[in-house]
Amino acid sequence: MRYVDEFRDPAKAQALLGEIRGLTATISRTRTQPLQIMEVCGGHTHSIFRYGIQQMLPDELEFVHGPGCPVCVLPMGRVDDCVALAERPNVIFTTFGDAMRVPGSRKSLLKAKADGVDVRMVYSPLDALAIASRHPEREVIFFALGFETTMPSTALTVIEARRQGIQNFSVFCNHITIVPTIKAILDSPDLRLDGFLGPGHVSMVIGTAIYEFVARHYRKPITIAGFEPLDVLHALWMVLKQIAEGRCEVENQYGRVVPAKGNPRALAAINEVYELREFFEWRGLGSIDHSGVRLREDYAAFDAERKFGVPNVRIADPKACQCGEVLKGVIKPQQCKVFGTACTPEMPLGSLMVSTEGACAAYYHYGRIDISRAVIDARVGE
Amino acid sequence: MNISALTGSRRAGKLNDTRINMSHGSGGRAMRALIQDVFVAAFDNPLLSALEDQAQISLADLTRHGDRLAFTTDTYVVDPLFFPGGDIGTLAVAGTVNDLAMSGARPFFLSCSVVLEEGLDVDVLRRVVASMKRSADQTRVAIVTGDTKVVERGAADKLFVNTAGIGVVPCGVAISAGQARPGDVVIVNGVLGDHGTAILIARNQLVLEADVASDCQPLDGLVAAMLATCPAIHCLRDATRGGVATVLNEFALASNVGIRIREDALPLREEVKGACEILGLDLLYLANEGKLVAVVAAADADRVLAAMRAHPAGSGAVSIGEVTECPVGTVVLHTAFGGERIVDMLVGEQLPRIC
Known about the structure:
CATH topology of the largest domain in chain A: Rossmann fold
CATH superfamily of the largest domain in chain B: PurM-like, N-terminal domain
Helix content of chain B: 25-40%
Radius of gyration of chain A: 21 Å
Largest sheet of chain B: 7 strands, mixed
Number of strands of chain B: 13
Helix content of chain A: 25-40%
Strand order of the largest sheet of chain A: 2-1-7-8-9
Order of helices and strands of chain B: HHHHEEEHEHEEEHHEHEHEHEEE
Radius of gyration of chain B: 22 Å
CATH architecture of the largest domain in chain A: 3-Layer(aba) Sandwich
Distance between the termini of chain B: 50 Å
Oligomer: heterodimer
Number of domains of chain B: 2
Shape of chain A: globular
Low-confidence stretches of chain B: 4-10
Strand content of chain B: 15-25%
CATH architecture of the largest domain in chain B: 2-Layer Sandwich
Largest interface: A-B, 49 and 29 residues
Strand order of the largest sheet of chain B: 8-10-7-11-9-12-13
CATH class of the largest domain in chain A: Alpha Beta
Mean pLDDT of chain B: 91
Structural class of chain B: alpha+beta
Low-confidence stretches of chain A: 371-382
CATH superfamily of the largest domain in chain A: HypD, alpha/beta domain 1
CATH class of the largest domain in chain B: Alpha Beta
Order of helices and strands of chain A: HEHEHEHEHEHEHEHHEHEHEEEEHHHH
Number of helices of chain B: 11
């Protein structure tokens, strides 16, 4: 398959792995702890597991699976709000597929659907708008979720809804923004990351200059990375090379998709429709200032929160759940107290176990071969 | 209520309605006309035409073919009813025939029960029944008994079909999921994921244009050819819902073995790969309706593969991996990229990823 197979070439992978091993050995001579590189995006996490990249790497080099899976960082309270909106009479609640299984404190959207609520899976916010125009007598709410990658499509849909004068369409806005989150992780006291694979598709929208603070202020190298396995290895090699040479820079491995300045039209749509919230609650990471957006006053008519009011109850993460520590790389998924026992993909406690992009689900499903034993033991113990 | 019971008068009714209404399920004349004109006329065989409450099957005839009866049932609720490569009728015959064939059985008889939604176009039903007849003839099974029900609009989605099937397992053939042994070879009969992809595209939820047809086909002939060359096939299962990944996990768990497959050995179609890339789906879990996974002793593998490739339903047969001692109960994929990962059982439905 063109533009895909080229980025999955095993021979090129072996060449890169050779270089990575060499660099890791050089860097490790002066260290006692393994190198920790955070891949920010869930898409990277997915690739790392799907292609078995982790176990091709030397032991002195670890991936820390970052917060860039929008489903994984969604707090229970917001899922409860979704269910409350969906349960309103006359509502058609539309959502991306993988948000359906995220547990709320009462139920997930999948369970709400089984209980009789009209929840529909869509592939794009425009599909939700189309449902609204087909059902003028119903209120259609779109569960807007994701980082800057999906923000523009929601924004353009809202602009389109206004242009068409569709009044029965609104969005429940849970869009979040990546930069304050990376900052929050860098500010956490127990942090010991050595560098970052930067977001790919988020950066396609917001560009690369915005990450300068990571290199300048926090002195960590960051390389914007694509999602094919060779992209991941190539970007990893670039980060290691920075570390080995004592550089801290923003580099762009994903140049075929990510322009330095981002996508001006997408950014214009974002600025037109959204404004920053004072703070937004993240699963596992707590409240992070200016990390979420909501619709501007101009678009209030399309804002489900203003239109219907939501309970907006803050639900604490389950106590046993260590999602936050996993997200910050303090522990590995299988070191969590409930991994594979109380928390499984069938009955997820934490949302890291829900999406295939979540670190815990990835470990559980794809795991390193040497943890397969632990997974099976855990299942037998259920 | 049984078809034959309702056609007891033996008067051939003619159905004049163009849409199904509640009277077609009421047991009266309208129902008799429906059954006679749509089902009995199409399926046309002496066992059904005897019009008793049940089909009566000669045991002596059956025992000539083997020493065990294979009996299975499956219900078909596909949406849309018609898709490239088949329809609910071809599925309802091939699916049940394949469930029988996976024991090595030769299929003989099927039942056909339908649940019709009020308002269904009668021509749609006729097309489905004609497909069933065509598929049944292809594989030489007879549809010998059945049932119809009509439910109010909204209580069912257009048309549901249940078929049960009877076949006979030849003496000495003992295939089961628990018989995979370390060293055995894992074989599939052709490209994977066509049915699942064709249905996704036919549902029209995606603006994807790809020329992919369902692989829906009966596999009894292929299995007979495999058994003729190797009566000691260890495991055999058709990779329908949950795909090849699910079948392999079932084999690994039932046999207490590990299974290792090679990504670069998987027979895949570019269009299917592309659709999966775009949607974030794993094609190892996509449904097939004409694909089987076989586990055979290494010494038999080449012969079985040759026999499969000589059959139209097995022309794309390849070995995709082997059975190992460990990790027990686990399927491991060697990625084309050079890594490895576990291929787990699916949790719930595969849901497309956000981004």
